[in-house]
């Protein structure tokens, strides 16, 4: 042991809880998180999502009560997903998406009024609102009509922005939608106050199952593999990210997060803008299931998963664990 050089002594750098925290380039804190909420068009609704422990679909009033509790303990941002449940609410072109009486626009107004410091992100897509469950307007043959879909998505984004959203986040993956949204915002004169977060590297796969239960957005036929990236498509993700940056995205997103750390790292190295990573429903539910089976401690694994996402290069983490982290991050540092 005596022959070891002094520089081999590494333990001194992380023997204390605080010095362990100093080893991370990006630290988990309350500003790291965006919390996803599912808001339905029912008058009263608080329905547990069976496949996602502690996650509920709520109507507008119940969502406001829930958000109020979280704002008290430090919630900084939420991302809203609308869930139309009324019979007849869905049609070919997803008309309910930007209905001013719909739950998303009503919730934006209410949150802006009641929580002035809360940063409001709204997911922009049509799949929750179309009767076919796909993320755009279809051609006769069932494929997505790019031009019509992009125009419709841009209109929906503008409606959310005009209602007061700080950020619109198109998740539809139609080619060219970032540019179309930016142009819409510029012609409305509000581009300076609306951030565009693009779901750029959104991979297809089986980790979205619980979300689709929550958002009731499973396609009625086919799947989304023709417009979501194949899981092995690293180069394709690089191109999608570069394209969205060139079209004016302010933030780009990688989704899912934990299985795509290399994609986060690629984006970090190639571009100078904030990177969001979506720890999706399947990742969340897997961690819960394994913890319930005694494989590991829930909190330790939740931290480990988010620290890995930040270490790979993410700035922002969209996670269903947000309410837990708001509490955990208030605990004494020795417990972290
Ligand atoms: Zn969609």
From TrEMBL:
List the Pfam families hit by this protein, alphabetically.
ALAD (PF00490)
A single cellular component GO annotation: cytosol
Record pathway: Porphyrin-containing compound metabolism; protoporphyrin-IX biosynthesis; coproporphyrinogen-III from 5-aminolevulinate: step 1/4
Output the InterPro entries linked to this UniProt entry. ALAD, ALAD_AS, Aldolase_TIM
Which EC class does it fall in? Answer: lyase
Annotated Gene3D superfamilies: Aldolase class I
List the PROSITE patterns hit by this protein, alphabetically: D_ALA_DEHYDRATASE
Residue numbers binding Zn(2+): 125, 127, 135
Q: How does it assemble?
A: Homooctamer.
| Task performed by this protein | Catalyzes an early step in the biosynthesis of tetrapyrroles. Binds two molecules of 5-aminolevulinate per subunit, each at a distinct site, and catalyzes their condensation to form porphobilinogen.
What name has this protein been given in UniProt? Delta-aminolevulinic acid dehydratase
Highest lineage ranks of the organism? Eukaryota, Fungi, Dikarya, Ascomycota, Pezizomycotina
């Amino acid at each position: 042991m005596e022959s070891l050089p002094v520089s081999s002594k590494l333990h001194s750098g992380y023997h204390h809880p605080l010095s362990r925290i100093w080893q991370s380039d990006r630290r988990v804190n309350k500003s790291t998180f965006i919390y996803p909420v599912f808001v339905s068009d029912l008058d009263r609704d608080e329905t547990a999502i069976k496949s996602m422990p502690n996650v509920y679909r709520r109507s507008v009033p119940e969502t406001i009560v829930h958000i109020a509790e979280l704002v008290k303990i430090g919630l900084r941002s939420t991302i809203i997903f609308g869930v139309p449940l009324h019979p007849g609410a869905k049609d070919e072109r997803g008309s309910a998406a930007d209905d001013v009486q719909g739950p998303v626009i009503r919730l934006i107004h209410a949150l802006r009024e009641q929580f002035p410091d809360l940063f409001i992100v709204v997911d922009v897509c049509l799949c929750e609102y179309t009767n076919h469950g796909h993320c755009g307007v279809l051609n006769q043959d069932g494929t997505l009509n790019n031009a019509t879909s992009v125009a419709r998505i841009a209109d929906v984004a503008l409606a959310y922005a005009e209602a007061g959203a700080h950020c619109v986040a198109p998740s539809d993956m139609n080619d060219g939608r970032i540019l179309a949204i930016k142009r819409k915002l510029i012609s409305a004169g509000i581009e300076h106050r609306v951030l565009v977060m693009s779901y750029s590297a959104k991979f297809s796969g089986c980790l979205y199952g619980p979300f689709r239960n929550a958002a009731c957005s499973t396609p009625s036929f086919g799947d989304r593999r023709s417009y979501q990236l194949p899981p092995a498509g690293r180069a394709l993700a690089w191109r999608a990210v570069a394209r969205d940056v060139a079209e004016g995205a302010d933030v780009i997103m990688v989704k899912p997060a934990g299985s795509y750390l290399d994609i986060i790292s690629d984006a970090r190295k190639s571009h100078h803008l904030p990177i969001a990573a979506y720890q999706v429903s399947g990742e969340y539910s897997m961690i819960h299931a394994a913890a319930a089976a005694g494989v590991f401690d829930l909190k330790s694994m939740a931290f480990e998963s988010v620290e890995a996402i930040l270490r790979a290069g993410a700035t922002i983490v969209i996670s269903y664990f947000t309410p837990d982290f708001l509490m955990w991050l208030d605990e004494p540092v020795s417990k972290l």
